[in-house]
Amino acid sequence: MSWPDLPAGTLFGLDNLPYGVFSRGERIRRAGVAVGDQVLDLTAAAEGESFGHLLAAGVLNPLLAAGPDVWAEVRARVREWLAEPRHADRIRPHLVPRADIVSHLPVEVADYADFYSSEQHAINASRIFTGGDDLVPANWKHLPIGYHGRAGTVVASGTPVIRPAGQRKPRKAAEPSFGAAKRLDFEAEVGFVVGVGSQLGTPVPIDEFPRRVFGVCLVNDWSARDLQGWESQPLGPFLGKSFATSMSPWLVPLAALEQARVPQPAQDPEPFEYLRAAEPWSLDLTLEIRINGHLVSSPPFATQYWTGAQQLAHLTVNGASLRTGDLYASGTVTGPAKDQRGSLLELSWGGREPLAVGEETRAFLEDGDEVVISASAPGPGGARIGFGEVRGTVAPAVV
Amino acid sequence: MSWPDLPAGTLFGLDNLPYGVFSRGERIRRAGVAVGDQVLDLTAAAEGESFGHLLAAGVLNPLLAAGPDVWAEVRARVREWLAEPRHADRIRPHLVPRADIVSHLPVEVADYADFYSSEQHAINASRIFTGGDDLVPANWKHLPIGYHGRAGTVVASGTPVIRPAGQRKPRKAAEPSFGAAKRLDFEAEVGFVVGVGSQLGTPVPIDEFPRRVFGVCLVNDWSARDLQGWESQPLGPFLGKSFATSMSPWLVPLAALEQARVPQPAQDPEPFEYLRAAEPWSLDLTLEIRINGHLVSSPPFATQYWTGAQQLAHLTVNGASLRTGDLYASGTVTGPAKDQRGSLLELSWGGREPLAVGEETRAFLEDGDEVVISASAPGPGGARIGFGEVRGTVAPAVV
């Protein structure tokens, strides 16, 4: 039940209510909640509420820092405003068509870490590069492998992605060369945004996941495979990733994902105790990847070997502290089927089997290509919870 | 010439004037300039000046963002205040004994990246782990290898370093185990702090280095070698580093380092054009490492293969943007001699040749060990420019 007109089958019903930051022509950034085809201007609607001051910063960080009791309170109030007709007169003026807004980064990102938690992705990468499974390292099933990325180049969905320049050395070349990346790729990932920070020296127990993490979004971890291949030994990816990482505008609260929680794939060997959760945190999101409007893949997030809860526990087991606004991403989401692969590297098998994209084919991304990653998950009563999309178009290199 | 009493041979004369952030019992953090054994309370002294508002934030970020013209203006004014007796009556009340202050992080760190730019360190690491030079990768002389670290765990000098827990697998073990790190190490490094940010998609030309980078500090890149060894394939160091990175309190402006600039070691092969600087940016800093008060090494920074200017150009050549407060570090500084090694890993040759530390020996750090890294560089007229020190004591693991 709700008084605003919600389109039939909307992915943004009252059981979703994801948070974002938007503007409308004016320069002021406002907190918003997506509902149907509209956005509730939460900054305006919350004026006078006890939590109103948390929504006036132009980023969601103050709300995130306030912790799970406040998250629950705000969510309950927003739902009440939209469900009960007696609030319609006051709230209606704060509803804006979603088509009329510009979305911004929902949070000021503190640290950004990226994992590598899809077993099928790890296997595919190994087979593509070596022809065998030798590249799946011995540590892979013992810990969620990850690395830190560049927080300052996490960009809002829609930001053009300029093809990076850099060094690369094709396997057959004797010497490296410099120029625009030739093997530009996307990686479809799921991101987790930390609300409540932690103290240096104190690991975060895995079961604190829902009290530390505010919500979930989509991430495109753009990757220049040729730059990455040349630079990554021995310290991992650097410039092959740091030119841009795109983040979807809407943070879906964990509270909206109760129906999406599913049992985790079996883990063998059994992980160390700090990686064992009392409750399952695998999430049944189905991602969809479109290149220039053509659906090319539908990766199933529930197949990930390591969950967001395990990643959080691992990230902090050495005592590393969390800060409000920390973003960590799942790593490329790749399922067992061919049309469930989460990167073009896999979809084109290292460029050797170009992928059909409408009438055309792609080994890697070309200038002008638009990549859109969207997702949805089961909600209550057969409804679906939408994540919106993370979108980016490749712009030509500057060199 | 100066009117405050400066101790003979001080490393903090009027040609140095490094910036930091301090407090004195009260909770308010103030900008300060080290001079002799004292600190000028710059926040107070600059009240009423055109740049006073840049010094009231409790971190130096606003000053750093203001750019090189303002940096030069502030430096000239501070020098004038301390050099000309006519300012003594006004300025004297703002001088505080350095022994009476608590130092804090000088900047809010935006992104933190770490390089690997000492050739001798790379060679030593390879020999320790393989017995040969096989681990120095083919890319090493073509680009300054680096990776992103965790900005949120960059801590002020003096912060206790809690021994991290995590997974490790000794080479002879069949399975990994979990527990407190056994091979805890330091890495003596030089850090560069970015003042003026740059735009996404626009590489920063190498010769903009002195207009982008505000100053230089010391960094201890604490490393748990056993955690790092097990986790690093294929995405590089993660939890083996992210538990703590210590930063010295004083940012020495590049303007204080003119006499420290020396020709760079020959580079063969000649690097790509974006890595070729018109002017030399090797810096003749001599580091000193003390464990529990005993001098164990004196690494010479001038021997680094890649300079801070080259690292900056590389970091951004893919279009990655800079932000005010970005910190990037040189990587372990290791010279050719045994007593010039910048890590205990090297000084104890992987633990096989324990290092004499006073009456004791160390393979790796023990609980309670204090590591102090200090440095100085040539200044005008035979004076030396001091960097102060970055200090940390190992606290027992929490597990």
List the helices and strands and how they pair.
The structure is a homodimer of 399-residue chains.
Chain A: E1 19-23, E2 30-35, E3 38-41, H1 42-45, H2 61-65, H3 68-83, H4 88-91, E4 95-97, E5 102-104, E6 112-115, H5 119-130, E7 146-148, E8 154-156, E9 161-162, E10 165-168, E11 177-180, E12 184-185, E13 188-194, H6 209-212, E14 213-220, E15 223-224, H7 225-231, H8 239-242, E16 245-247, E17 252-253, E18 261-262, E19 282-283, E20 286-291, E21 294-297, H9 308-316, E22 327-329, H10 344-347, E23 355-357, E24 360-362, E25 370-378, E26 384-395
Parallel strand pairs in A: 6-22, 8-16, 9-26
Antiparallel strand pairs in A: 1-2, 1-5, 2-3, 3-4, 6-7, 10-11, 12-15, 13-14, 13-22, 14-16, 14-17, 18-19, 20-21, 20-25, 23-24, 25-26
Structure description:
Chains A, B: InterPro entries: Fumarylacetoacetase (IPR005959), Fumarylacetoacetase-like_C (IPR011234), Fumarylacetoacetase_C_sf (IPR036663), Fumarylacetoacetase_N (IPR015377), Fumarylacetoacetase_N_sf (IPR036462). Chains A, B: Mg(2+) binds at residues 221, 241, 245. Chains A, B: The active site is at 121 (proton acceptor). Chains A, B: One of its GO terms (molecular function) is metal ion binding. Chain A folds into two domains: 19-104, Fumarylacetoacetase, N-terminal domain (SH3 type barrels); 112-395, Fumarylacetoacetate hydrolase, domain 2. Helix content of chain A is 17%, strand content 27%. The first copy, chain A, contains ten helices and 26 strands. In chain A, strand 2 and strand 3 form a beta hairpin. The model of chain A has no long low-confidence stretch (mean pLDDT 97).
